[in-house]
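Posting here for the record, re: LIB3CWND.
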Amino acid sequence: MSMKRRFRSALFLPASNARALEKVRDLPCDVVILDLEDAVAPEHKATARDAAVAAARRGFGARTLVVRANGAGTPWHDDDLAALAATPVDAVLLPKLDDAGQCGAARAVLGMDGPALWAMIETARGLLALPSLATGAATWRLEALVAGTNDLALDLRCRPDAARTPLIPHLAAIVAAARAGGLVALDGVLNAIRDEARLTTECAQGAMLGFDGKTLIHPSQIAAANAAFGPTEAERAWAARVVAAFADPAADGRGAIALDGAMVERLHLAEAERLLADR
Ligand SMILES: CC(C)(COP(=O)(O)OP(=O)(O)OC[C@H]1O[C@@H](n2cnc3c(N)ncnc32)[C@H](O)[C@@H]1OP(=O)(O)O)[C@@H](O)C(=O)NCCC(=O)NCCSC(=O)C[C@H](O)C(=O)O
Ligand SMILES: [Mg+2]
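Prediction output follows.
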């Protein structure tokens, strides 16, 4: 997966919803996630899988295409992985990942050249597995961690408020594991699809925590996520000033300089270059 790809907006849709499958082709999300798991009723699991495979074969252009399989231990998991092993998708998203060993088992079915793995962190046991996921990521070609805030709140029996207060330490832990393992980190969904103000606040909170983007459930949520993640104009302007300041011969041989009344070190230069390259 190219690190130049963007992951600001990752739209889920049920693979059983033919209308949504068509509609998503014209939507400006960075990532399309076809769901086979919780958004699909048990009686539609097989047809949803077939629809996801057919849609993937048609392709989704430059966007990252991910299919969320049913979880390990469910009646549909093995058939999902077997079908996806031979399907042109960028990644298979494993839900409710409880144990890093599930990545190894999935990789064995998908094959080393098959789709990459993404993992949803949405259980207490998933939180405990974060260090193992970060250290073993390369072995399994695990490329992203996705916060599953609905299931996580249920499993923890916490009661998130509008500011997601009880979830914040766990969201930060997911970001930390992603950074340690060189993975993409995606924030959880906002269920309130008509609450624009809350969406804007939640996207800003996710960006502040360090997420690369947010998972979404409705087309109306894409614009806010695209606007919130990635460098702002002010950050780009700051980055350009930092690069220019270090390029000045006066900065030769210096590790730290003063800029706009603040200390700037070479670690900030690296961050500025990353921002300007939009990585
Ligand atoms: C939430 C919805 C069920 C709402 O659907 P609906 O009432 O049909 O919405 P609208 O009438 O406002 O839709 C307007 C048009 O947009 C299309 N649409 C809606 N949603 C999507 C979508 N996700 N992708 C593509 N297109 C979409 C409708 O078809 C309408 O089109 P048109 O006919 O042209 O007007 C619905 O939005 C939905 O199903 N969303 C996705 C649900 C989902 O995938 N859930 C699973 C992932 S989230 C999760 O599991 C949480 C996580 O695991 C955790 O634990 O937190
Ligand atoms: Mg979930």
